[in-house]
Amino acid sequence: STETERKRWIACASHRKGDAIMKKEQIEAWLSDWFANRAGISADEVNRHLGDNYFDLGYIDSFGFIELLDAIETKYGIMFDNEQFEDRGFSTVSGMTEIILTALGQ
User: Fold this and answer.
1) What SS3 string covers the chain?
2) For a surface tag, which of 14, 24, 39, 43 has the fewest beta carbons within 10 Å of its beta carbon?
3) Number of Cβ atoms within 10 Å of the Cβ of 52
4) What is the C-alpha separation between 78 and 72, in angstroms, rounded?
């Protein structure tokens, strides 16, 4: 029946939204751990600054950024293009999380 199909669609859409939220949390946690290891600080410290510029915080320099991109491309099987590098989101953990989600089609 149409009601059953509607309920099934709502359940499926809700499940996908839950997956996307979980995926976002997983990516953010992975990035926090990566920055913590790289900068010699705790992941909790990184988590307090998810929206702050990680270059300004001294977490990485330009060489570290190249290493970060390589790690992301290896971990998630995605490639970044020059246009994406102009996105200000590339300079924060939160922004990078969103960029990765978009690249993964989430």
Assistant:
1) CHHHHHHHHHHHHHHHHHHHHHHHHHHHHHHHHHHHHHHCCCHHHHHCCCCCCCCCCCCCCHHHHHHHHHHHHHHHCCCCCHHHHCCHHHHCHHHHHHHHHHHCCC
2) 14
3) 15
4) 7
pLDDT (tens digit, 9 = 90+) per residue, 19-44? 556 699 999 999 999 999 999 999 99
pLDDT of residue 28: 95
- Cα Rg of the chain, angstroms: 17
Do residues 38 and 45 make contact, with C-beta atoms less than 8 angstroms apart? no
59-70 residue pLDDT tens:
999 999 999 999
How far apart CA 92 and CA 103 sit, in angstroms, is 16
